[in-house]
């Protein structure tokens, strides 16, 4: 069995899409932060708690981590070819910003692409030439700095709400104004940036290159991180122990890292590689599949969107059906993506993204591309 790092990254990205949809399906059905009342069916409560512990906050971080890894992968490829990466990344992130505006403002408030594009601009301006250890230090500082400030202050009763990212610290020094209200729309870039940086660091370590020789280590680290992360999340969501939003952010990322080490371990086994093969197909078309979730489920659930009137099934379908719908959706996307990639070079949005990034015409069909290459 051949271990392929690119296949691993595609598999992780596809797996992240499943987890993101598990979380977002509830938001499509009801709203973000939905909590079942005491009279809700037990199966609905179990479903919500399962998704919160296994997926919430952790898969979206995994997706962001893969973005940081993808940045480093493309940067190295461009540098090997002697191409200046800054114009390429500038156009690439500008396209992401445009898709984020359309997706987040026009289609659905749960968009992550706009936040990614803003974080990516900061990445381009300040961190593209960072050494691995510098990426790690900045990533950890920006991620756990605000919670580490917040936890003792909250413990001693000096504050009531938690600080969970750098924007919460920035707000302390800004008087309330229309400008601050505007900043709220861009709040989550501060969630994405540190994870991008940690992803850039991990790419440059031996985690992915020496995965075969580190099987046992990766397995043990994964189990330890998952047990600790799941336990802290269960204390918060199930036991209702007040660990705080600041500690919850840390526990969510522990689960994310547990998935990274675990999937890396599984890709060095025959069974694990076969298990994640379907996720590679949707991972190669991650943006197209992500946007397809929004278009599909706003049509089904939202009673009146910006562009679509919608079928209006919001709050009419039990929460417990959500994960089933998510898994079936991903299964169908695997089939569609596999077929599409057998005929075409990339997903439709990815193809347009590539044209915009390189300002060079590339045929979308594999047959036309082979004719161009052979001519």
Describe this structure in words.
By secondary structure, this protein is mostly helical. It has one domain. It has helices at residues 5-29, 42-54, 59-80, 85-107, 113-126, 132-155, 166-171, 178-183, 189-203, 215-237, 244-266, 270-284, 286-300, 322-343, 348-358, 366-374. Helix 1 packs antiparallel against helix 3 (59-80) and helix 4 (85-107) crosses helix 15.
Q: What would you call the structural class?
A: mainly alpha
Instruction: State the domain count.
Output: 1
Q: What do the pLDDT scores average to?
A: 87
- Please tally the β strands and state the result: 0
Protein traits:
375 residues; 16 helices; single chain; mainly alpha; 71% helix
What topology does this entry show?
Layout: H1 5-29, H2 42-54, H3 59-80, H4 85-107, H5 113-126, H6 132-155, H7 166-171, H8 178-183, H9 189-203, H10 215-237, H11 244-266, H12 270-284, H13 286-300, H14 322-343, H15 348-358, H16 366-374
Gist of the model:
With 375 residues, this protein is mainly alpha-helical. Helix content is 71%, strand content 0%. The longest helix has 25 residues, at 5-29.
């Amino acid at each position: 069995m051949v271990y392929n790092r690119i296949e691993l990254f595609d598999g992780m990205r596809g797996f992240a899409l499943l987890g993101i949809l598990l979380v977002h399906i509830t938001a499509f059905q009801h709203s973000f932060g939905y909590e079942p009342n005491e009279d809700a069916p037990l199966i609905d409560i179990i479903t919500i708690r399962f998704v919160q512990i296994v997926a919430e906050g952790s898969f979206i971080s995994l997706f962001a981590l893969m973005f940081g890894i993808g940045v480093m992968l493309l940067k190295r490829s461009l540098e090997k070819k002697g191409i200046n990466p800054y114009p390429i990344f500038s156009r690439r992130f500008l396209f992401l910003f445009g898709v984020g505006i359309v997706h987040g403002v026009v289609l659905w408030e749960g968009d992550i692409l706009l936040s990614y594009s803003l974080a990516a601009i900061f990445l381009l301006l300040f961190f593209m030439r960072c050494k691995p250890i510098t990426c790690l230090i900045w990533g950890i500082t920006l991620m756990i700095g605000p919670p580490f400030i917040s936890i003792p202050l909250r413990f001693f009763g000096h504050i009531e709400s938690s600080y969970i990212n750098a924007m919460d610290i920035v707000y302390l020094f800004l008087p309330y104004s229309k400008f601050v209200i505007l900043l709220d729309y861009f709040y989550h870039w501060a969630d994405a940036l540190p994870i991008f940086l940690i992803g850039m660091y991990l790419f440059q370590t031996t985690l992915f290159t020496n995965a075969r020789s580190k099987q046992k280590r990766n397995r043990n680290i994964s189990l330890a991180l998952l047990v600790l992360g799941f336990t802290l999340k269960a204390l918060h969501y199930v036991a209702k122990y007040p660990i705080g939003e600041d500690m919850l952010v840390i526990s969510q990322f522990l689960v994310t890292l547990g998935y990274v080490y675990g999937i890396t371990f599984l890709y060095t086994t025959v069974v694990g590689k076969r298990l994640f093969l379907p996720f590679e197909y949707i991972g190669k078309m991650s943006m197209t599949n992500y946007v397809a979730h929004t278009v599909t489920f706003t049509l089904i659930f939202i009673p009146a969107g910006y562009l679509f009137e919608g079928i209006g099934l919001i709050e009419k379908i039990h929460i417990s059906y959500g994960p089933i719908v998510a898994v079936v959706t991903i299964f169908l996307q695997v089939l569609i993506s596999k077929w599409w990639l057998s005929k075409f070079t990339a997903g439709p949005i990815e193809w347009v993204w590539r044209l915009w990034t390189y300002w060079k015409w590339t045929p979308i069909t594999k047959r036309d591309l082979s004719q161009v290459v052979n001519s």
